[in-house]
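Our preliminary data section would be incomplete without showing what the modeling component actually yields. Below, a chain of 191 amino acids is followed by its predicted structure, encoded as tokens that our downstream tools consume directly.
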Amino acid sequence: MTAAYRLFALPLAVCASLAQPAVGAQTPHGIDADTGAQTWKAHSHGVALSLTQILPDQARAFYLNRGFSAEAAETYATACVFMTVLRNDAAPGTVGFRLADWSLTAAGNARPPRPVDDWLAEWRRRGLSETAVIAFRWAQFPPEQEYEPGDWNQGMLSAGLPPGSTFDLTARWQVAGKTYEGELSDVHCPR
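Predicted structure:
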């Protein structure tokens, strides 16, 4: 199995493993034996969330093959990138979220993950082709979405932190006007 194939096959395997709720306060953590990519996952209030490291070589290859310059691909590849999966397995209704409401806490500072719109503006400033910018946008985890029971999505998400950084992520979503949270602790940016 090639590294590029594992980039996409691994999140699907992770999704399949999310069917059972996690027990205890610890964030379940796993490491892919072939790539070394780490995964963190949690269940909360019927919603499953996982982050799987996208290793810098995987991100570089993905974006170089979509028209990025080597410099632009390197910028994204080293910005702490994860394959993010969110599933409405058994929430009591439609799950709605906005990434702007999520909180990434590193070194005592809390903020949302780096917004997709910030990346898009950077790629346009750098003069990337519209085709490359569109390819980037479609590969990203959505900035906001709604999921009916059984729905899920995946996409790339950048924490915007240096390689090797550690953070905690609090994901927030609403169901029928009520806010819920799920947490991933001690998440490590790929080196």
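The longest helix spans residues 3-17. Residues 1-26 have pLDDT under 50 and may be disordered. Preliminary results of this kind motivate Aim 1 of the renewal.
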